Amino acid sequence: MTIKVLIADDQPVVRKGFGLFLRAAPDIAVVGEASTGEEAVERALALRADVVLMDVRMPRGSGLWASKRILAQRPDVRIIVMTTFDLDSYLFEALDLGTSGFLLKDSDPDRLVSAIHTVAKGGCVVSDSLVGRLVSELSRRKGQPSEQKAADHREHGLTDREAEVIKLLAEGRSNRDIADELYLEISTVKAHVGKIVSKLGVHNRVQIAIWAFATGMATPRIGNHGGSQHA
């Protein structure tokens, strides 16, 4: 399946740079570009993009403003917020909106291609350099210390199987990987993920992974500045 990607950034050189290496990927089609928030909303909807690379700071509507409006009309669109600014407020607002990832613009091109594949399959991505802040923020929201003994999953109403799924998801495993590892059908894994989201009161897979890091059920793999944590 070809993944249709829209590049939204107010800097022409950034759009050209992303477009050059994305167009070289055999299963990715860059279907359009946008230089403002308003254009991003209009073109994402008109071109039926599967994935949007969304800059944060753009004229006539920020990337977060545009993301909110796109997802309100097409919640199936996967949005990766791309920025040179790793400010906490951007990160947390982007994830709260339901975007699928938050990467810094200096991410390695191969990492970005991998991230597009990940979110297209329903996963989430966050730059490694930002994982620690996510752990602290989710811990604060849940009223949990960021460093504590690993949580007993049963205290959170999770079954043993759901705990296994959480740990594999936090390692960056896809639904297919988890299904193969646990000898389950993919539909069963998806059902488990849905129940986990409900029980933990989170919004998406990346927040499940961050919850696992915050409670000690999993350990974040912190890498270099351009890397990404897949979930």
Describe the structure.
Helix content is 49%, strand content 15%. The protein has 231 residues and is of the alpha/beta class. It has a seven-stranded mixed β-sheet, with helices on both faces. Helix 2 (37-46) runs parallel beside helix 3 (63-73), helix 7 (160-170) packs across helix 9 and helix 7 (160-170) crosses helix 10. The relative contact order is 0.13.
Please provide a brief summary of the model.
It is globular, with a radius of gyration of 17 Å.
Name the descriptors.
globular, 231 residues, 10 helices, alpha/beta, 15% strand, seven-stranded mixed beta sheet, disordered C terminus
Topology readout:
Elements lengths: L2 E6 L3 H11 L5 E7 L2 H10 L4 E5 L7 H11 L4 E6 L4 H10 L3 E4 L4 H12 L4 E3 H15 L17 H11 L4 H8 L3 H15 L4 H11 L12 E3 L1
Parallel strand pairs: 1-2, 1-3, 3-4, 4-5, 5-6
Antiparallel strand pairs: 6-7
Helix pairs in contact: 2-3, 3-4, 6-10, 7-9, 7-10, 8-9
| Average pLDDT | 82
What percent of the residues sit in helical stretches (DSSP H or I)? 40-55%
- Count all strands and give the number: 7
Main sheet record: 7 strands, mixed
Gap between N and C termini, in Å? 21 Å
Q: Tell me the β content.
A: 5-15%
Low-confidence stretches: 145-150, 222-229
Write the H/E string, N to C: EHEHEHEHEHEHHHHHE
- Overall geometric form: globular
Rg from alpha-carbon coordinates:
17 Å
How is the largest sheet built, in terms of strand order? 2-1-3-4-5-6-7
Q: Which class of secondary structure composition applies to the elements?
A: alpha/beta
User: Helix count, per DSSP?
Assistant: 10
